[in-house]
Amino acid sequence: MKAILTVIGRDHVGIVAKVATKLAELNINIIDVSQTLMHGNFTMIMMVTWDEKTSFESVKSSLTDLGQETDLDIHIQRQEIFDAIQKL
């Protein structure tokens, strides 16, 4: 499955490491990433992929929990939905 992951929040040490570690624990591969800082705010967008054996809902739940633990807005959506929205 391919998905688009966004991470937004106040910049602090370890954001990339925490997100990448959680993705590795879930056996999710990062295939593209872009990040930037804007006036103290961290933003990152990733394209990720994983085996269909792992449900989208379980990945979403794990990332939502990580967002709450780290005070970040972490959202994930299936690539086909992301692509369809971009066409509108």
UniProtKB/TrEMBL annotation:
InterPro entries: ACT-like_dom_sf (IPR045865), ACT_dom (IPR002912), UPF0237/GcvR_regulator (IPR050990), UPF0237_ACT (IPR022986)
Positions of the ACT domain: 4-77
Pfam families: ACT_6
Domain of life: Bacteria
Stored HAMAP family: UPF0237 (MF_01054)
UniProt record similarity statement: Belongs to the UPF0237 family.
Protein name (Swiss-Prot/TrEMBL): UPF0237 protein FC27_GL000806
Source organism: Companilactobacillus versmoldensis DSM 14857 = KCTC 3814
Source lineage: Bacteria, Bacillati, Bacillota, Bacilli, Lactobacillales
